[in-house]
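Predict the 3D structure for this chain.
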Amino acid sequence: MCSITQLNSSWFVEMCSIPKSKAIDCHAKEFQFQKITIFSFCFLQVKLMNQIKDSTNKNRQAELRRNRELAQIKKEQRRKDNQIKTLEADRKKRDIVIKRKQEEVEALRRKQKSQMSAKAAGRTARYERQPTRPVDPIGSYSRSMRKKKFNPRAAKAKWDTLEKTVSYR
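Done. Predicted structure below.
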């Protein structure tokens, strides 16, 4: 960009290349110089206006670009939020279905326990009673039992063998 002094001097030289043979008074030269400076100021004004227009257009384009990007990001975020909501709803539906199935299984198990055969029900009722010890007339049996400690593993093994023999008959 040319400075004002450069424009003034170059235009002034061009405009003032009048031959000296003609006598132009001082006022005419001054008028001509003012005319040239006005033209140079107009030229600078037009140039500055064009620069302002260019910069405003660039700013407007940049703002539009940012707005588009922002709208795109918001759209993507809404899409992700909707996807999360649908996935959560699906998970809740699956949880409800699983819970209902578990309740059905529990109900079937309770029903199955209540519908035991009479033989099995009698057996369980008999086993729930306290076992009676046979009375040893001599009394040696009770003394030997007091000395031994209760072993739950041995009792379980005896119980299982007894149950197997009863169920095979």
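The longest helix spans residues 26-114.
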